[in-house]
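Support reply, case 0932

Customer input (verbatim):
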Amino acid sequence: MKNITAAITGIEGYVPDEVVTNDDLAKFVDTSDEWITSRTGIKERRILREGGSSDIAAIAVERLLQKKGIDPMEIDLVICATVTPDYPFPSTANVVCDKVGMKNAWGYDLIAACSGFLYGLSTGAQFIETGKHKKVIVIGVDKMSAILDYQDRTTCVIFGDGGGAVLLEANEEGNGVIDSILRSDGSGRNYLLQPGGGSMHPSSVETVEKRMHYVKQEGKQVFKFAVTNMAEVSAEIMENNNLSSDDVDWLVPHQANLRIIDATANRMGLPKEKVMVNIQKYGNTTAGTLPLCLWDYEKQLKKGDTLILSAFGGGFTWGAIYLKWAYNS
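Our regenerated output:
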């Protein structure tokens, strides 16, 4: 019996139409295009004015199924990685299933901040590998504008809205998810979090007045941890699989900060032409960055290409996945 791996057999992304440039933000926040660009690499981001994360995800999934010619009723499972669910419950995955017509699928949300898609991809792959599930959709999506404090220039300039979805199916050619390293450290929660709205600090007049329902970040601490851990875990997965820099065709890094991306690529010994970067036009879409990268670069990917996906997020969460691309566009 051949070894079954879970392969990405389709990818689709979606970003809202409205573009907010650095100059737009500078009109009401004490910042500038030069300040944002030099520190992050971001030039613009997309904003969804009306609707929730499920609306972004549903469009991506509908387009993915149409592109693949798959009936929504064929989908077995939907995993939605997000920190901006439509509601505390029900899950955004269930809402997307309803909007798209995936009536035979069960689903759930996965919270791992910017590492969410990475966690979701690893989890979804295991459902395929068991042989019990044939078609699994993994979504990475966030409407970060819903939890941004537009009086805080350290956070509101970084994030944007968007997301993407991949289809996972069984593969017997050696392509798909080969290995993963996933890590977390809850002691980092105070450096990057949304303090209000959960059971620790339920929504109240006080939490609203204290602006506790917005993203809070200690940028220097997060940057230090991200640079170290994202780079180290990417190098580690290469070492574990005896991969040299020549063996790696693409690094797919979380799009948080261009300096973090560069540090990770340097640690892996990869030139810039092997690194997927779209932070300049989307900003940090949290769980959406990795699928949006794959979507943007899909036409450049070839069957058998070696990809390393790497991310770091609040919590802290981080990890890397080694996969072989399964199709030619």
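We compared this against your earlier run and they match. Two observations from our side: The chain has a mean pLDDT of 97. The CA atoms of residues 126 and 253 lie 22 Å apart. Please reopen the case if you see a mismatch on your end.
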